[in-house]
Each structure stands twice: as structure tokens, then as C-alpha cells.
What we know:
The complex is a heterodimer. Chain A is mainly alpha-helical. Chain A has helices at 2-37, 54-61, 63-96, 100-111, 118-129, 134-141, 156-181, 184-192, 197-225, 229-233, 242-252, 256-280, 282-285, and strands at residues 41-43, 46-48.
Amino acid sequence: MASGNRSQTAQGLTLIAPPLGYAVLVLAAPLLTILAYSFFKDGYLTVIREFTLENYRAVWADPIFHRIMLRSLVVAALVTLATVVLAFPVAYFLSFAVSPQKKAMWLFLITIPFWTSYLIRVFLWKVILGYNGVINSGLKTLGIIEQPLTFILYNVNSMVITLAHAYAPFAILPIFIALEKIDRSLLEAGRDLGESRAMTFWRVTLPLAMPGVVAAALIVFIPTIGDYVTPALIGGGKIPMIANMIQAQMLDLDNRPMGSALAVTAMLIVAVISLVFIALNRRFLRVRQ
Amino acid sequence: MKGRGLRAYALVYLLFLYAPILLLPIFAFNSGTIIAFPLKSFTTEWFGQMWGNASLRRALTNSLTIAVSASILATCLGIFAARASTRFEFPGKGPIMGLIMLPLVLPEIIVSISLLVVLLSLGVKLSILTVILGHTLICMPYATVILSTAFNSLDRSLEEAAYDLGETRISAFRLVILPLVMPGIISSLLMSFTISLDEFIIAFFLAGNEPTLPTYIFSQLRFPKQIPMIMALGTVLVIMSILLLTIAEYFRRRGIAKTGAKNTGGFL
């Protein structure tokens, strides 16, 4: 069957060529260009093609970069924590308490808000949480408060709430899939061997669900750290995150090598954190086999 | 009794997910110009204002052009990727599929900025064409996922039967496989259309001076006077996307039923 295999391989490669070609041209090539640019020098309005590490040195020495990167990491970490903790019971409910025919319906209901009008949803959170916003004006009309609540005004807290809302469905799906894979007889075995319901959850369900939790954490953490819209709208541009800084460096200041170095550094930091996170959870991830 | 607490929590959670969307129509029909309680009186003025707005109409035309083109392109590329990954083994399959799926997890700012830098250095003029380029890229992974489910649930013996009955590889694909995965294709088209219509970052960086609906909305959010109209526009957009997604879900389920597979639910 050697020739059969070869023709299978050839057919597979022919089929994958168009999407692969597209991804290489529109994704891989631009990413490599950014990488190359980050080692070039910036001349005024041009890029001088000479190898230098100066951009990276400047990025690492820049206190503004430290502050913004740290803020992005803290916001993304808080959003990840909030989404995963809030999403877990929902995923658990979907997997264990909802009848099989209704599961697809629930999943559909949960994912709908994710696909609708991201921009307007972010803006609405600003309106809901703002100085004269829905919460403050509503509470004032009811006579519960006299002064507006300030801890939710245009700051890191309001960004975390907004982003946690935006990425909530992304956290539910991987956890749900991991829970669905759990062999239900293992849980029964736990109960039969005299474990309480809580202990069975702690010693059987949770460890088996960990791969889903890890996937959920990463799938929320990585896009939120690069979010551009929320800091721009909620923070009014005054509390930028890393995406806003990259954009400013690339376009407003037109320093492409520096902007590229920023982007590459940020991606490296995110990659390292993700790998450390996966390594820390290796014990749980091995369960899968 | 076990599920009751969890069910209550899930319902509250669902309410939290829908809260902003539910506020949209309330303020779209409120005659007050400030988005706050208490509400004033009922009005349809903002919808009228929206209808008469010329730059909004232009943004809509651009957005529809982009979304239709990107969804067709992404779905075509997705068909290739899904067919290759579900039916064939070839060297480097893992990394290749990884690259195609990468836009799912890569922050959009990285995708758009790097594409922008390349386009500018090649001297390409920014237009809706460059947005289509970007949107096709980010819709491709979703199309591939949806179509892979469709191709995966195909019974291989149907295809083999077609060969045995004398069909060529191409005619078997057209006559047997394509009709069976058709619901998946429609679902992928609608999904990609919805994603492209709602996408902001790539349109913001790659559209040049051409407005799309999200970039138009973004530019208007700075003007308090325009907000009620944006609420009206948001209401229309939300209703439209819910409609499209419902149709997409209907076709996805029908496709699964057609090939006799078990419904695992959800788009991912």
C-alpha cells in the first residue's frame, strides 16, 4: 500500500496548500517581518536595515513599558481569574444537571452575546458603570446612595468587569468539554467507596476537569492582554494597556522598529507566562492519557 | 434538589451576559439624550435619524461588501483545510493546522499591526480590499472548525460507493460529499459573516479612510449627541446577528442530523 499512502499524502498536501499558502502570506510573513523590523534601526520616516539590539534595550529600560506591561498583566490575570471562577459552576451545571437534549440550547444561549456588537457592549459597560451611569443613577433614584460609587468609575476595576463579561463564554466551553469527557462511573466509584459528595468533587471531578480549566485560562488570558478597545473606551485613553502602547508607537510616533520590538517583547512575555502556567499544571494535564 | 442552586446561579449568570444587550433597546426608544435612568418618554426618532444618515449608509455598504467577500473566501479556504485534516494524513499536519488556527488565540492587534506594516512597506493602498484580506484570515479558523465537524461526521463508505459506481474523484465530491456537508457550509458562511460584520480592530487599522459599521460607531461614540442613534443602530445589529446565528445553528444541527452523528453542541 506504499503507493496508496503516497497518493494519500499528495492529495492531503494539495488540499491543504491553498489555506496554508494564505496563512503563510497573510499571517506568518507579516509576523516574521515584525520580528525582522524589531532588530532594525529607526531613521526618521524610514527604517534603516542594520542589525541592532538597541530597540530591545530601550524597551526593557523604559519605565512606562514596565508600568503598562504590568497593568496589562494584572488586568488579564484578574479577568482570567474572574471568568474561570464564575464560569466553572455554569459549565458544571451544563454538564451534570442539564438533560442531553437541552445542552446545545444552553450553549447556544451562552455564546450568542459573544458574537454581537463587541464595541457597543464595551461602550454600554462604560454607560452602566459611569458617573451618571445606569447603576449610579438607578441607585440614586432609589435613594440608596447620595454620591456616585467611585470604585467602578473609568478605572482598572471597570476594565476588568467589562473584559470578564466579554470573554465569559470562552471560559465556559473548554471547561464544559473537559467535564463532558469525565467517565461518570468514576464518580459513582468514588461515592461507593465512601467519599462524600464534596470529597468526590475535590478528588475526582476537579482534577479531571483541570485540562479544561487550564485551556480556559489561556484562551481568556491571551486575547485580553492584547485588548485594544476596552482601555480606549473605558479608560478614555488615560489608562492604556500594551495594545494601545504598540499602536501609539507604530502609528502615532511612526517608530516601526520600536513598535515591533514592543510587540515581540509582549508576545514573548505572554508566551513565557503561558508555558510556565502549563508547566505548573503538568500533573493535572497528564490525567488525559 | 442537587441542580436547583446551580440552575439559579446559571440563570443569574445568563442575565449578566445579556444585561448590556437588554439595555440597548430600552435606551434606543428613550427620548432622553443622556443614557441614564429615569427614562423619559417613548420615541422612534433615533431610528429615523439612523435611516437618514448618509455616512452610516456608506459604512453599511462597505461592511456588507467586506462581510460577504470575507465569508465566501474564508469558507472556501475552510473547505480545503477541513477536508485535508479530516480525510488525509500528511507530513507536518500538526504545525500546518496550528498555523491555520493561530488567529483564534493571537491578539487581533498583533495580526492587524503586522499586516499593516507589511502592506504599507509594499506600498499597497489601504481600502476595503485590505480589510477583506484580514477578515478572511481571522474567519478561516472558525470556518475550518465548523466544516471539520461536518466532514468528520461523513460516512466514508458513501464516498467509496460513489467511486464503485463509476464516479470520478471530483464528481463524487460534487454529487455525494458536497450535498452532505452543505448545512456545514451555510453555517460557516453565516458565522464568518457575523464575525466580519462585528470586527473592529482589523477594520480600524486596515480600512484607510473607508468607514465600516464598527469603525463608524467607534468614531461616533465620542459625541454625546450621537449616542441615542448608536443605541438604535446597536439594537438593529444585535437583532440581525441573533437572527443570523440562529439560522447558522439551525443548519449546523440539520447537518449533524443528516449524517446521523450525535450532536455535541456549540460552535467550538
